[in-house]
Amino acid sequence: MLQRTSNARPRGFTLIETVLILAVGLGLIVGSITFFKQSRFVDKTYHFTKIVTNIAIGIQAGFRYAPDFRDVSNRTAIDLGLIPDSSHDGPAIFHPFGGEISIYSASPFKTFTIAIDGLEGSACNRLFINNGGELKVVDTEHAYVTINGHRYAPGVVRNPTACLADAVNFIEIEIG
User: Which keywords does this chain's UniProt record carry (predicted)?
Assistant: First the structure.
């Protein structure tokens, strides 16, 4: 019969090893959450840009033989198939950041406007390219852009700080 010669207990993790393992695990969890939030933001920005670009290009193409943009509206963009089904409810068009997009034309109907309401500051800033402040959404060489009441002429370098960081922003893009 074998006898035990020592009173040694099986060794587990020390307190320092346990704390280290918990810290590494917590770091992985926080990193995963941050990555997920950033990827969701990039996805929303991509879909937002796609919607506005589709509207701008699609309406110009749809009205290329028309004398003006007299009948441009949200319904026009929806009927032309420019808005995904998940982004509108009846005539109301919603962007991925939760605000509304309105499309209209005013007399003399030589231009149409895409109005974007409820755009959070980080999303508004994301629409600008860092070098020169050009708006990424549409070809702004031929469009007036108004950000929170500040109007920029076509081809003028926009101020990337025009977007309010801690508030919702209102942008109008006038295309003709």
Answer: Membrane, Transmembrane, Transmembrane helix
Lowest-confidence pick of 31-45, 80-94, 105-119: 31-45
CATH of the domain at 171: 3.30.1690
At 79, the pLDDT band (50, 70, 90 cuts) reads very high
Q: How far is CA 37 from CA 33, 62, 73, in A?
A: 6, 37, 34
Structural domain contains residue 108: yes
Q: Domain for residue 126, yes or no?
A: yes
- The token duo for 170 is 């209102």
Report the alpha-carbon distance of residue 157 to residue 98 in Å, rounded.
Answer: 28
Q: Tally the domains of the chain.
A: 1
**DSSP of 37-92:** HHHHHHHHHHHHHHHHHHHHHHHHHHTTTSSS-TT-BHHHHHHTT-S-GGGEETTE
User: pTM surpassing 0.85?
Assistant: no
For residue 10, tell me if it sits in a domain. no
Which percentage of the chain shows pLDDT scores above 90? 19
Confidence of residue 139 (pLDDT cuts 50, 70, 90): low
Q: How far apart are CA 126 and CA 120, in angstroms?
A: 10
Quick one: pLDDT at residue 131? 42
CA separation for the pair 93, 82 (Å, rounded)? 11
Distance (Å, whole) CA 143 – CA 174 = 5
